[in-house]
Write a structure and sequence with these properties.
It contains six helices and ten strands; from the N terminus they run βαααββαββββαββαβ. The protein is an alpha+beta fold. It has two domains: 2-87, 2-Layer Sandwich (Alpha-Beta Plaits); 97-212, Alpha-Beta Plaits, CATH 3.30.70. A four-stranded antiparallel sheet has the order 2-3-1-4, with no helix packed on it. Helix 1 (13-20) packs across helix 2. The protein is globular and about 45 Å long.
Length: 213
């Protein structure tokens, strides 16, 4: 696995456009991998962090394939600093306690009236978001949440492409989870680190970041 840190230039027209259309940011990142590779093939996950005081834009990108960000360095003022990439270790033992951060899209599937199809319905109440992470995702991905803080609950409305007149805009609810977790199943947890947690991964959700407790 590789973790990259990209410092974006907030004055770049391309960056400004991608802030308004998150899927375009995903497409830009995918150019760092060979042609024909899909997001799932590279296991690309990313998260954009905006400093609350300075507005600095830090983009974290994680993948199983080694990225090549040369095209971003050669672009017109897209980056403020050279990209930084490093290999990371996924093999963490059960019983290990770690601090974590996760920006996610907590949802539940509900059947439509025809009962043949289902829609993802966002969980907007904090207690439901807590339940989604602690009970559903914790059990599914091999970890137990010891402490949790929820912040930055946001609704994002945007068009997937530049053509605003062809399809209705998309709505996406995101929430930031910070806290302390304990690994209960090393294999499941490693898989979650690699493939991400929850839906909307192409829109910047699902990347689980860890730090020593």
């Amino acid at each position: 696995m590789y973790l990259s840190r990209l410092i974006l230039n907030p004055r770049s027209r391309q960056v400004q456009a991608e802030l308004a259309r998150p899927y375009e940011l995903h497409r830009t990142l995918m150019r760092g991998f060979p042609d024909g590779v899909k997001r799932e093939g590279a296991n690309l996950l990313h998260r954009l962090e905006i400093h609350p005081r300075t507005g600095a834009l830090t983009l974290l990108a994680q993948s199983t394939l080694k990225p090549d960000w040369a095209y971003l360095q050669n672009g017109k003022n897209y980056l403020l600093d050279p990209p930084q990439s490093k290999p990371i270790n996924l093999h963490l033992p059960a019983g290990r306690t770690l601090r974590f951060r996760l920006v996610a899209n907590p949802t539940v599937k509900k059947k439509r009236d025809d009962k043949k199809h289902s829609n993802r319905v966002p969980l907007v109440r904090e207690e439901k978001q807590t339940e989604w992470l602690k009970e559903k995702k914790g059990q599914q991905h091999g970890f137990h949440v010891l402490s949790l803080r929820i912040s930055q609950m946001q609704k994002h409305t945007f068009w997937k492409s530049k053509q605003k007149d062809k399809r209705p805009p998309l709505s996406l609810y995101t929430v930031q989870f910070d806290g302390l977790l304990e690994i209960t199943d090393a294999e499941k947890f490693a898989q979650a680190l690699q493939t991400g947690i929850g839906p909307a991964k192409a829109f910047g959700c699902g990347l689980l970041s860890l730090a020593p407790a």
